Here is the input.
Amino acid sequence: MDTVIIATKNKGKAKEFAEMFASFGMNVKTLLDYPEYADVEETGETFEENAILKAEEICKLTGRLVIADDSGLMIDALDGRPGVYSARYAGEEKSDEANIQKVLEELRDVPSEKRTARFYCALAIAMPGKETTTVAGTCEGRITEEKQGTNGFGYDPIFYVEQFEATMAQLTPETKNSISHRGQALKKLREQLPVLLAGEAK
Here is the structure.
């Protein structure tokens, strides 16, 4: 298993995973390398369910180790929305800018101390002949009143991290990866991967 397929066509996610997997010495491919495969429909009600759906489907098609993530933003003042609908919150056409503007509009009258939120990431690891495993990570923060920063993607420009007094979009990729929800989930994956690759996963 010297190749791992990350089940995403999102270039931002693909770049983050490639950076994180460099230390494993594994060849990282994404669905951008397999244009013949259609997007897997995300019909699950949780991040875990959607990640499993994607990982198992691509694993079945390729016969390789596949890691799929489903992640999003959960805002307390919006009862956990946008949640699993984060990527298409403003409509079926994915638009980071439209999603951000919708969130800011919905929080327009919400004071700073009540704008608490978290990014959540579920990773599913599917291997031929093995039971699919999942790990998850979170990153706590709050939603700003306007965009700040140009790094990252998605909701990063409005997600403020108290620890660094900056939004995700103002952090370097290295710093973001060290604290992000995806980074936290990947740390857990790193602990499990040697066991999974050794074929000892139950």
